[in-house]
Write a structure and sequence with these properties.
Blueprint lengths: L7 H8 L8 H6 L6 H15 L4 H10 L4 H27 L3 H7 L4 H5 L3 H15 L3 H10 L32
């Protein structure tokens, strides 16, 4: 596993725009054989969770729409792999000072809206270095300058929600340690 590097906030931004793994951009990247109606059901389930539906209600909705436990497990595993690859590409680009690779890694993510120049990339790298040195507050200040705020509800787990506290179907965010 990766050392805890700067990317709790960035990983969150890179992987999805909200707290769920089941948005259409991410579903396009995973290699799971889903029908159009199953994809629509996953997207609707995401909206249900955002609107406050409990897990049981969402699970029932998914089952009614042809998504059983095995399919959900397959989707979760595929999403985990895509997220891991995204975090790894981001980490490598930052550590190798590779702006072009960084731009590729953040394509179609909210991070692309925040970092759109080499100057912003330099600030992002500086935040990464501060975080590695243990200056989490300094790193967070630089991230805030870039318009990247720590997602609400993220406490002392390096920017990750405690299990069960996420709005997504699976719960909290994956750990990048």
């Amino acid at each position: 596993m990766l050392k805890q590097i700067m990317i709790p906030v960035a990983a969150f931004a890179v992987t999805v725009t909200g707290a769920s793994a089941f948005n259409s951009d991410l579903l396009d990247k995973i290699d799971v054989d889903l029908t159009d109606s199953q994809i629509s059901a996953l997207e609707e389930a995401h909206e249900l969770r955002i609107d406050g539906a409990d897990r049981e209600e969402v699970k029932n909705y998914l089952e009614e729409n042809g998504i059983d436990e095995d399919t959900m497990k397959e989707v979760r595993e595929a999403v985990h792999e895509v997220r891991h690859e995204s975090r790894e590409a981001l980490r490598e680009a930052v550590e190798n000072d590779d702006y072009d690779a960084f731009l590729t890694a953040i394509t179609d993510t909210p991070l692309a809206d925040a970092i759109d120049s080499e100057s912003d990339f330099e600030t992002f790298k500086e935040a990464h270095e501060l975080r590695q040195a243990g200056d989490h507050e300094g790193a967070q200040e630089l991230m805030a300058e870039l318009g990247i705020e720590k997602p609400e509800g993220h406490g002392d787990r390096g920017g990750h929600r405690p299990r069960g506290q996420g709005k997504g179907l699976k719960g909290g965010q994956a750990d990048t340690n």
